[in-house]
Every structure is written in C-alpha cells, then in structure tokens.
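Re-run with default settings, no changes from the original entry. Doing this only to confirm the output is reproducible before filing.
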Amino acid sequence: MDPIDKLLAEVQAEYQEPKTSNRPQNLPNLQNLQNLLEKPIEKPIEKAIGKPIGKPTQSLPKATTSFTSDRGLDNLLGQVKSEFDQTDRFEAEKRAEELKQEALKQEQIRQAKQAQLMRQAQEWLKSLDPLSDEGFWFEQFAEKYPTRLDAAIAYLEVIPASNPDSQ
C-alpha cells in the first residue's frame, strides 16, 4: 500500500466513526453547524468593509461624517490660513510704517542739513569781499541763479571740504 493511500484510509476512518469519544476538538459539532446555517451569509466584500451591501441608507451617515470631518479640516485649515494672512498683513503694515518713519526721519535730516547749509551760505556771503577775485568770480556765477543765496548754497554744496568757513 502506498503511503498516501495509508494516510487517506486513516483520515477516512477517523471521520467515519461518529460515536467515538476520541473525536478531535477542532471538528464542528452538529449545534455549531446549525448556528452557522442560521447566520446570514456574508459576502467577502461585506466582511472586508464591515457593511452589508444593498443597504445604502445605512452607509450615508458614515459618508456624511467623513464629509463633515473634511469640512471640519477645511475650516481648521481656513482658520490657520486666515491667521497667517492676518499676521502677514500686520507685518506688512508694520514694515510700511517703519519705512514711512525712516523716510520721515531722512526728510527731517535733509531739511536740517539744508537749513545748516543756508546758515553757512548766509555767513559766507557776509564775509565775501565783492572786490576780491573770489567776490568778482562769485558775482558772475550768481547771475545764473534766482538769488545770491541760492548761488552761495550751490557753491558751498560743491566745495564744502575746501571752504574753511563751512566746517
């Protein structure tokens, strides 16, 4: 006898002895078989997703819940985005204000320098001898300007380092 045939005969003998007490524990008894038959048959796809097929009204709340959670996530992302936008706007306004203050400060410095230069030009004109070579040259130079003060300012702007009175 072939070893496979022997094994087959042993297995058949075990299952054909219905009234033996040495029955294996893992074999289902009659009660278990009846319970299995009374249960509705689940299709493999139902088992995988956990919902019976053919009852779409039961699956709608779960789908709505996922849409609701998506909306909640969208709302949260929208809030975070609006907070970042608000922060960006605040920082942009702050930078604009700083630039405005810096421009104002620079304008004040420019005006102060202009006022200082005007005082220097007035002092220089008072000390200028019109009969000197410099005085004669300046009179010809000043003819191109609306006033002698404007000409003196233009002259002192060009040569502030060479003029000892401008320091």
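The two ends are 128 Å apart (CA to CA). The longest helix spans residues 56-127.
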